[in-house]
Amino acid sequence: MTILLALQLAVPLGLDALIPAPDSNPVRADRVALGKRLFFDNDLSRNRGLSCATCHKPDYAFTDDLPLAVGIDQRRGHRRTPTIVNRAYGKSFFWDGRITTLEEQVLLPIQSPEEMDMTLSGVVARLKKSGQYPGLAVSDLSFSLASYVRTILAGDSPYDRYIAGDRTALTSEQLAGLRLFRGKGNCVTCHVGPNLTDERFHNTGTGGTEDPGRAKVSGKVEDQGAFKTPTLRDVARRAPYMHDGSLATLDEVVEHYDQARARPHLDSEIRPLRLTADERNALVAFLRSLTGVIQEGMNKNAGSSVR
Q1: Are residues 112 and 187 in the same domain?
Q2: Is there a single domain that holds both residue 61 and residue 22?
Q3: Whose CA, among 94, 135, 141, 270, lies 20 to 30 Å from 197?
Q4: Is the four-CA dihedral 223, 261, 64, 154 of positive or negative sign?
Q5: Distance (Å, rounded) from C-alpha 248 to C-alpha 148?
Q6: Is the dihedral of CA 152, 230, 290, 206 positive or negative?
Q7: Which of 150, 181, 159 is nearest to 14 (CA)?
Q8: Looking at the structure, do residues 137 and 114 belong to the same domain, yes or no?
Q9: What's the total number of domains in the chain?
């Protein structure tokens, strides 16, 4: 793994300026540009009805507004579409962490019967035949899509500006929420670092018992129902919530953790918080302060401000 200084990539305030990328796929402008074209191209799906952007919508912080993913021919998945903002910093991918590189991850939705339902050879042949992608190979598909995803970055929120020294960036209610986030709420146990995730797996007590989560990958009983901690970047734009989309609002998320009902294999850090109504409101207000700027592509002016 090579750590590349993002000279052409304007990294938003609050994020690590060093973008991880493998030696075999350094971040290059031509690959990013190709990856962006492919990301929005419906030819990647069997019926030409959806692209990567169908589920990872820029206007929804690169996820969608559905509880469960819906792929080709309206086939419904069994988990929510995860956001892909800041996945450049990810250590594993998908809710259960079954893949460890972006280069692998970007190819699996194309091949999934529930998503795009294509073979890699078939999609490459189709794209080459279109005349828009001469000389394209599977490795180009992998490297370019992964490169583009690495440029999808979210930061420069009121929270980041507060941390950077602007003491007017957060309201008094948001500041109270930040104190709860770090203290009584115990949120920082899992939501840590610049990307506000520990990249680990936890059973937080949502969903039924039929989805084994991380246990299907690790084979460990203690991982039953555990899922990867998502980033909280731009979380207010990404309803509904949790791996199964079972919580419709941030208020419901906070209430869920406040009550923390017992269930098998529940993470040891999950326990009733006993927050007051004002404290719950303050915590939600703080979570909304994590909404900032999402940018993508190599152009430092790319993307949109959502302050």
Answers
A1: no
A2: yes
A3: 141
A4: negative
A5: 30
A6: positive
A7: 159
A8: yes
A9: 2
SS3 assignment for the chain: CEEEECCCCCCCCCCCCEEEECCCCCCCHHHHHHHHHHHCCHHHCCCCCCCHHHHCEHHHCCECCCCCCECHHHCECCCCCCCCCCHHHCCCECCCCCECCHHHHCCHHHHCCCCCCCCHHHHHHHHHHCCCCCCCCHHHHHHHHHHHHHCCEEECCHHHHHHCCCCCCCCHHHHHHHHHHHCCCCHHHCCCCCCCCCCCEECCCCCCCCCCECHHHHCCHHHCCEEECCCCCCHHHCCCECCCCCECCHHHHHHHHHHCCCCCCCCCCCCCCCCCHHHHHHHHHHHHCCCCEEECCCCCCCCEECC
pLDDT score for 170: 98
Of 37, 5, 13, 268, which Cα lies nearest the Cα of 165? 13
What pLDDT shows up at residue 5? Answer: 39
- Regarding whether 250 and 188 lie in a shared domain, the answer is yes
Same domain, 131 and 229: no
Tell me, what's the pLDDT at 299?
Answer: 59
Q: Is residue 78 one of the residues assigned to a domain?
A: yes
The answer to whether the beta carbons of residues 102 and 32 sit under 8 Å apart is no
Residue where the block lists tokens 């941390």: 163
What are the structure tokens assigned to 163, written together?
């941390």
Residue 44 backbone phi and psi in degrees, to 5: -75, -15
- The answer to whether residue 141 sits within a structural domain is yes
Whole-prediction pTM: 0.93
CATH number of the structural domain spanning residue 276: 1.10.760.10
Residue 2, burial from CB neighbour count under 10 angstroms (0-12, 13-18, 19+): exposed
Domain residue limits at 268: 157-291
Q: What is the mean pLDDT of each run of 10 residues along the chain (307 residues)?
A: 51 94 94 98 97 98 98 96 97 98 98 98 97 96 98 98 98 98 97 97 92 97 97 98 98 97 93 97 98 86 34
